[in-house]
Amino acid sequence: MAEQGTMFEHCVFSFVQSRDLQQSQIVQLQETVEDHGGKVLELKRDGKIRIDDVTHILSTTSDFPQYPEARNGMINVVKPSWITESLLKNKAAPTRPHTPDPNLIFSNTTISCADIPSGDRDAIVGAVLAMGGSESSSLTKLCTHLCALTMDNPKCILVKERNLKCKIVLPHWFDDCLRLGKRISEEPYLLPDPEILRATKDDVLQIPASEYIQGASSTRPESLPLTTDSPRRLDVFQGKTLMISEDLEMGSRTRKVIEDLIRGGGGSITSSVHNADMFVCHWRDGRDYITAACAGIDVGNLSWLYHLITHNEWTSPMKRLLHYPLPKGGLPGFQGLCITLSNYGGDARTYLENLITATGATFTKSMKENNTHVVTARDSGEKCNAAKEWGIEIINHLWIEESYARCEIQRLTEPRYTHFPPRTNLGEVIGQTPFDLKALKKAYFPRAPTPSPSSLRRPVMHEKDRNLSSSKLSDDESAMSQDEANEAVKRTIVKQVKQIVKGRAKSTTNPKLSTPLANRRISAGKENDTPSSTGSRSAKARALSNLHGMAPDIALYEKEKKRKGPIWGGERAANEVEKQRALDRSSSPATKQEEEEFSAEDTPNAKRQRLSLDKKKPKTVPIEVQLVVTGYSGWVNNVAKEDSDKKKLRELGIHVIQDARKCSHLAAPNLVRTKKFLCALAMGPTIISTDFIEACSSVKKGGPPDIEDYVLKDTANEKKFGLKLKDVVQRAKANKRSLLRPVPIYCTKDIPNGPETYKEIVEANGGHFALYTGKPVIRKINPEEDDAGGEPVYLVSGDKPSERRLWTSFIEMAEAGNMEPRIVTTDWLLDVAMSQQLKWDEKYMVGLT
């Protein structure tokens, strides 16, 4: 425990003022820190923090200019609550739960678990700790959330009796937050009456407002969002130099108003990007943009500039997606996409409309036949239902945001893009995705050119330092450079000597591990002869002379390496030179010769050892058969045999797969109407008996038995189904998975065995499959406009009352679309898939009763 008044004696603080941390609060915190032995450093004249001197930065936000630098310097950035908790515990509290980092969604969260099973409890606690939170086994005043399933636990009763400020939530809340990677509201998950258990996802839910997109819903605001009658001083531009690009196409009057505001706030305007601290443009294109972005200055668009003027508070243009310049021509992969929105409103809808347009996709207000995606805040509503029936992708806004932030289209298979908490409108977490700087650099920043050795003699300088390039160094600087050069020479010589000694030590302890240089030093006469001492001294003398001759260049190189300069100069240029030198050394003729000599001097014993190792390595047999297995009783409830058989088959070049679309062979005990059999049959595979698996498992040496000897023969079932298996396979090969391509097939959701079973069969045969819920999914046409009408449309249905109610509306819909309605049993689809013929008979009709 720390003594009173000395708790923060080793801490040096600095404060970041913001809307949530005003100057009056900073004064109080400063007094508290100093009373407990801490030290507070004032900001520099330009308003920057003295990063090299502080240990803690107190801020309620990570949105301040020096936050990345503080993170790289391992400096603690914490909220003021860290001081409060430290004083309560009378010792320094952990910093992680008090970080303002938005990625740690459970910071400022302390959980305790009540009646949660141990396995689930460990998973929840681990996730909370990983995302910035903390855990307490007992219920304390610091607990913010109590995770429970019911209110019967003593912890829940205690919270209720003492009226503690602790929210009792279902574990579903943690699960949904982790799935999304965002922190959503706890309200629908609060016990004793959680909304997610008493309401459905289709019930009305209010569209929330989001503070994250205020002033960032458009890239080109129509007007300056403040009155110019009573201009105010803008401290945000104090000491800053701005360049406003011509691609903004700003009117002269508006431009003059903005420039007057900037100059009135202590800033200045420049027409050269080399002199600018901030660059405002519309497109991620052009020499000025690349120069500004690569130099690391703040680059934003007009919306970002207006946001700074409105709030008089600095914010990074990378924090909000529409505060950064737009990609000219959109992003790769979005051209041709047609996207609509659902369940978003207000600024959130405007924001997403502009974001979709910025990606290069087409936005439509209403659902159309050519729509490819629906971006929705909830998995409910007319658009979502229609999208499911039409086979249109349904995703939340995280997909469009993260695609834009990472400068490339993201995969739709990512689970968080298709996750919709039942009683949450995801509009409440919109706008929280920042830019991925690494992805932005990779996509838009040119690669650094490889500097030549002569570039060390002429280092790249800042624009402001160019007037010094023609003048000589002062005497003090020259002396300092010489000292640095001497130190560099000493370090290099010591390093070389150590390497030589190390190489000799290795060669004496284990001759087989000798280096190429050691091998070359051994004379042809005596085995223990050493190199000539005279030659060694002369070699060192030459090296030392060369190094002394390079002293001025080394000094200038070391000095330039430490300087923070433009993107191609300073530290980065130095690093590039070091990389190039390493590459040159590795590809030099001397190194290659040494490597060749080393390999040539390999001993016969070593070669024999390598050959023996190569013989021991198992040779992988190339895959010749992709096998799908169905109906094999030998693997039922016998996992050990299944694993053993699959391993043996793989050793024989036979790979057992689950994806029927990739199979070349199908194994079954007889003709069966299983989903896997019918899906694989559409590929036209060679159909064999499962006896082949038994035959392979008994093979000791050699290859697999002849597959032709195990071709499936099932006369009884061929007669039962009225087909010849050989003819069916031939028809499947001729169909090329397009048997049902021209046939629209719908299915009721209450069909026996579930719609997914029949969906896979239809899609394996190239057909269009969708659920039918009673809403029109076929466009009405005028019969006179389509004389050829009468094409059949199928509804696969059972005979349940819930299914029968759909028949009338299906018939009316089909007739309105000038199509012939056919309501059929599942036997029709199974027989069609089994025979690989699109046949029809009235016996398949369910009919109306």
UniProtKB/TrEMBL annotation:
Pfam families: BRCT_2, PTCB-BRCT, RTT107_BRCT_5
GO biological process: DNA double-strand break attachment to nuclear envelope; double-strand break repair
SMART domains in UniProt: BRCT
BRCT domain mapped to chain residues: 3-100, 101-191, 232-322, 334-406, 735-846
Basic and acidic residues: bias regions: 573-584
Chain intervals with Polar residues compositional bias: 506-517
A GO cellular-component term linked to this record: Cul8-RING ubiquitin ligase complex
Domain of life: Eukaryota
CDD domains per UniProt: BRCT, BRCT_BRC1_like_rpt2, BRCT_BRC1_like_rpt3, BRCT_BRC1_like_rpt4, BRCT_BRC1_like_rpt5, BRCT_BRC1_like_rpt6
Spans annotated as Disordered: 446-487, 502-546, 567-615
Protein name: BRCT
Source organism of this protein record: Glarea lozoyensis (strain ATCC 20868 / MF5171)
Lineage summary: Eukaryota, Fungi, Dikarya, Ascomycota, Pezizomycotina
